Amino acid sequence: MAELLDPAVAEAVQRGFGSGAPQARRYAEFLVTHGMERGLIGPREADRIWARHLFNSVVVAELIVPHATVVDLGSGAGLPGIPIALARPDLTVVLVEPMARRVAFLRECVAALELATVEIHYGRAPDDVPSGDVVVARAVAALPALAGLALSGPNRSAELLALKGASVRREVAELERQGGYQIQVVDLTDPTGASATVARVRRGR
Description:
The chain is an alpha/beta fold. Helices cover 38% and strands 22% of the residues.
């Protein structure tokens, strides 16, 4: 896949992933082959695997403090956890996934990429989730439900970083009405210059 990348995309991969760029390319190839074959990536996603998935995921990495343990809730095909791990080798990333077939895919992917800082946990929130400093999530649930799932049990004092789209302001307003959370909307720019939005949430008032 590396030789097929548009030069501008290749430059963005290097800018976004640094020393992890070669692994990021292998991960993208893994997604559009094995991930697509298993139905984890839609058939129309191959042409936008970087813009829609990897670049959109890696932006979260800049918000995470050094040497943190990061829990990727509902990891699916490894998004956003694997891009974060590739960009930030100082982090420990735990991919939490409740579906066995997706866990099998994640195990194969992590082994193929030789990601020593990534762990896989077969479990379901909120009852079976390991503790971390930061919980990340992408396309899991609307923010009011997600905050309750992510910031519970051993992660009540953690920070939630949720990648969100156009609905973020409405979801934040709903969570504010619910009460009990500190919420910040962070507008970021991905390695191509495209915008990305992260809801940053902690318990408290």
